[in-house]
Write a structure and sequence with these properties.
38% of the residues are buried. The chain contains 14 helices and no strands. It has one domain. It is an all-alpha fold.
């Protein structure tokens, strides 16, 4: 029995398990559909503005409410009061459906995200596969928005959706396969249970690849070619205004949170943390709250890392972006997948301690070899370019 269902039955002894489970499911679904979008967007927009302001030696929002905490509410009021415009020659059905799909696709991922002990919508035995499948809905929403707007800039962004997002699906899936191999399961709960040592420390290569691919999937800098204002005005949502634009905005920040949550689940041990197993029973409501606090701390750390990357690195050029995905992340990911599979099959690494050390050594070797290969290729390229310049001078 789930911890929350058990707690509800203990609170109201007359309540049967099916009724308690129905109430918990309804509360969970309502929180995901109505509460989570508001909280996530308001909290993370404020956090992002403050963090990037610190990076750029600015103050950030400080006018709307104390310390600028009500800036998110002011943005919501602005979105609600803006005029809703639909281009005359747009495909109206597809145009109006795209913003809703951008949010729905992200909400569906929350169904398999374990945020605390026993608190998960459905712990599917193919949870990782479900995440990959449902994640395609957001890609489809952006493609629909760019194509249906009847705008050349939006259409160009739709082309970039196909080039960028589908390209970065491949290294993401490879990183997920590495985790599935190490955990021996695609079920989120079992992946968390397998992390006596978080996979961040035993599979750092998979974490780096997954983080880069996730940032590209969300379309954030330095992979924000889908809405590069210096090239295509605003990209796929250039023709959207008011609440339709707000839906894309909400979808992006919810995707930011769910991407960080998936990274937390796969690489940081999810809701596991000190004192949870030894001192506090996972079946108690206190264990649920402590597990949720651990999950939230880790997820916010990943979000901070993504914001830090956005405020630090410049935007990629589109050809460099695709080259980085296809010519670097994919081969390195495949090399890492082969290395992990070989380590898991070595008979003398049967004990868990030796297995973790073997996985870490294999990942470090792949990283070192990959960086050395890139360094050699860069030196060769510079040498060829230098010979070309010298030949031209003669």
């Amino acid at each position: 029995m789930d911890a929350t269902v058990s707690w509800l039955i203990n609170l109201i002894p007359q309540m049967t398990e099916p009724v308690a489970r129905l109430i918990v499911d309804l509360v969970y679904a309502g929180a995901l559909a109505f509460v989570a979008p508001v909280v996530v967007v308001v909290a993370f927009t404020y956090m992002e503005r403050k963090v990037i302001a610190r990076i750029q030696d600015r103050v950030g929002p400080n006018r709307a409410g104390p310390f600028g905490l009500l800036q998110g509410l002011a943005d919501a009021v602005k979105m609600l009061t803006k005029e809703d415009i639909t281009p005359q020659d747009a495909d109206r059905i597809v145009y109006n459906l795209a913003p809703a799909l951008a949010v729905i696709g992200v909400i569906l991922v929350y169904a398999v995200l374990p945020v605390a002990p026993g608190v998960i919508g459905a712990d599917l035995n193919v949870g990782v596969l479900y995440v990959v499948a449902v994640g395609g809905i957001g890609t489809m929403a952006i493609l629909m928005a760019g194509w249906s707007s009847n705008n050349k800039y939006a259409l160009l962004s739709a082309f970039r959706v196909v080039a960028q997002l589908i390209s970065y699906e491949i290294p993401m899936i490879i990183a997920l396969l590495i985790v599935v191999l190490a955990a021996g399961s695609m079920q989120m709960g079992e992946i968390i249970a397998a992390q006596d040592v978080p996979f961040l420390f035993t599979l750092p290569l998979a974490f780096i690849i997954f983080l880069m691919a996730t940032i590209a999937e969300i379309g954030r800098s330095p992979f924000d070619l889908l809405e590069a204002e210096s090239e295509i005005v605003a990209g796929f949502h250039v023709e959207y205004s008011g609440m339709k634009f707000a839906f894309f905005f909400i979808g992006e920040y919810m995707h930011l949170f769910v991407g960080a949550g998936i990274a937390t689940t796969l690489f940081l041990g999810g809701w596991r943390g000190p004192f949870l197993g030894e001192v506090i029973s996972e079946a108690s409501i206190l264990g649920v709250l402590l597990g949720f606090v651990y999950f939230l701390i880790k997820t916010v750390f990943i979000v901070f890392l993504m914001i830090w990357i956005r405020g630090t690195l410049p935007r990629f050029r589109i050809d460099h972006l695709l080259d980085f995905g296809w010519k670097f992340l994919v081969p390195v990911g495949l090399l890492g997948l082969i290395a992990v599979a070989l380590v898991l099959k070595l008979p003398f690494l049967s004990s868990s301690g030796l297995m973790w050390i073997g996985l870490l050594v294999a990942n470090i070797l792949v990283i070192v070899v990959s960086l050395a290969a890139v360094s050699m290729a860069a030196r060769r390229s510079r040498s060829v370019a230098l010979r070309g310049v010298v030949g031209a001078d003669r």
